[in-house]
Amino acid sequence: MARPGPRRGAAHPHPRVPHPAQLWEWVDNPVSGFGTKGGRPSGSGVKTSEAKAAARIRLAVEALAAMPGQKAGEVAAALAERHGQSVDTWKRVITQARKQAQQ
């Protein structure tokens, strides 16, 4: 790719805007890491979300066993207070835990 040469003459009217030649110097500098770093790591990330879901289901199963007489909403509220996330999220996790327990 052909890069534009440095502009001769007056500086840019705004002092915070770098000169185009300075930008190309920054891009060409390997220390800047331009184009080589950042973004998401390779892989789909499915493993981490599945692991988080499995951990939440395990917590829900333990909570259901510890509080057998409680309603799902009450158990979900306790889990949300203790571990974060919303009560609705924990209700879904509790439903999933109950489905797995029945299988």
Distance between the termini: 60 Å
Shape: elongated
The overall pLDDT, averaged over residues, is: 79
Please give the share of residues in helix: 55-70%
Low-confidence stretches: none
Strand content: under 5%
Question: Structural class per helix/strand content?
Answer: mainly alpha
Series of H and E elements: HHHH
Radius of gyration: 27 Å
How many helices? The count is 4
The major beta sheet can be summarized as:
none
Give the number of DSSP strands: 0
What does this structure look like?
The longest helix has 21 residues. By secondary structure, this protein is an all-alpha fold. The protein contains 4 helices and no strands. The protein is elongated, with a radius of gyration of 27 Å. α2 packs across α3.
Give a brief rundown of this model.
With 103 residues, the protein is mostly helical. Helices cover 56% and strands 0% of the residues.
Topology:
Elements: H1 20-28, H2 46-66, H3 72-83, H4 87-102
Q: Which key features would you list for this structure?
A:
103 residues; mainly alpha; 4 helices; single chain
